[in-house]
């Protein structure tokens, strides 16, 4: 039996790689933080939503913050790790707008006043990154382009 390639993408998908997990994060980034509103806006069945929220909290992406003691009620707020996922969702949304939507359902406006057109740029040189500008360097011993050595 072969073992799969060590991969941060696979690890990340283990946390957020399910439809309702990503939709929960969309709602949280819009400022929707309470269970009933998240359920309404995502269309998630309540049991599945509860499971996804629990998983996102356990993974340190969201935190439960009480807003009522009687009865005990919580809202879900992004942690630092959660905030780090916002650009990922924006890029995913941009891809969907470009390839799947006739009209983008939501448009973000940048602080400069223009509609946001996200791009990946190199933090070192500032150049926009496209596929031809990058090369993989495998750091796990025994792994290369073709897989395990």
UniProtKB/TrEMBL annotation:
Source organism of the structure? Streptomyces telluris
Q: Which Pfam families match?
A: HxlR
Q: Which InterPro entries match?
A: HTH_HxlR, WH-like_DNA-bd_sf, WH_DNA-bd_sf
Q: What are the entry keywords? A: DNA-binding, Transcription, Transcription regulation
The answer on whether this UniProt entry bears the keyword Transcription reads yes
Q: Which residues form the HTH hxlR-type domain?
A: 7-104
**This chain belongs to which protein, by name?**
Helix-turn-helix transcriptional regulator
What GO molecular-function term can you cite, just one?
DNA binding
> PROSITE patterns this protein is in?
HTH_HXLR
């Amino acid at each position: 039996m072969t073992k799969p390639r060590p991969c941060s993408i696979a690890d990340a998908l283990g946390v957020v790689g399910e439809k309702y997990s990503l939709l929960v994060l969309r709602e949280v980034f819009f400022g929707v933080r309470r269970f009933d509103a998240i359920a309404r806006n995502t269309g998630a069945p309540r049991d599945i939503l509860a499971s996804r929220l629990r998983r996102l909290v356990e993974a340190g992406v969201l935190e439960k913050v009480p807003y009522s003691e009687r009865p005990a009620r919580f809202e879900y707020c992004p942690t630092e790790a959660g905030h780090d996922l916002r650009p990922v969702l924006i890029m995913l949304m941009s891809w969907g707008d470009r390839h799947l939507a006739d009209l983008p359902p939501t448009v973000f406006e940048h602080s400069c006043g223009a509609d946001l057109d996200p791009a990946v740029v190199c933090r070192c040189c500032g150049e926009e990154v496209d596929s031809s500008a990058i090369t993989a360097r495998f750091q796990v011993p025994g792994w290369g382009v073709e897989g395990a050595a």
